[in-house]
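User: Teach me something about this protein's shape.
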Amino acid sequence: MIMNNLIIEQDGHIAIITINRPSQLNALNKETIDELNQALTTADNDPNTGVIILTGSGEKAFVAGADIKEFANFSVEKGKALSAEGHDKLFNYVENLSTPVIAAVNGFALGGGLELAMSAHFRIASDNARVGLPEVSLGVIPGYGGTQRLAQLIGRGKAFELIMTAGMISAEEAMSWGLVNHVVPQAELMDLAKKIASKILNNSPNAIAAAIRAVNAGYQEGVDGMKAEIEEFGKCFGTPEFIEGTTAFVEKRKAEFRK
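Assistant: First, the predicted structure itself:
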């Protein structure tokens, strides 16, 4: 798979997707969004891949926003289409992948960059990371899920403050707000991401995918999260992985879910 804006590596059962536009601080343009959709689809469909790590190239930025030059002259209708397409191809797509996605935030995560990180199932950050949603300073609002996911993660009051001030917060502050799970020196970021990924890989891929669907259901309009949990819980009983997990427990051995 030839990509102009991504570097894709496979480390055992871990797929590492690096957004590689360092001269643009890894800003998201249409081509990069399309490539991310392709790379994520390939990784999610690969039975050899159990975890995906998303990160940015270089030491300055995860993703420093969307490429404003691409949409500065858009009409109202084109603006709506831009947002809708981005949701479908990337941001909602990441959130609903069956394969866990860890965002390793290695620097600035602004605008669309923070929205991409928030689409991941959880986030870890380097201590030099800075995050924010500066869109209102450009006369627009976050359009890739930022108004919704930020409030879900940190609460409505803090989300309003961060969006309305168009400010940035440090990695440590982001962790105290619940926006990221861990903060480490930049040199240790990928090692931590792989360490967490390795722990995930010890567990049932089917159960993890079911857990993703169940958790996400609680944030979907018109969906009863508890009923979704009951449904997903029950489905697990019909899988070979459930038999292996429970048998291994009874036999006092480690379950083997992957070849």
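Now, about its shape. Residues 6-201 form a domain with the 2-enoyl-CoA Hydratase; Chain A, domain 1 fold (CATH 3.90.226.10). The chain has ten helices and ten strands. If you'd like, I can walk through any region in more detail.
User: That's plenty for now, thanks!
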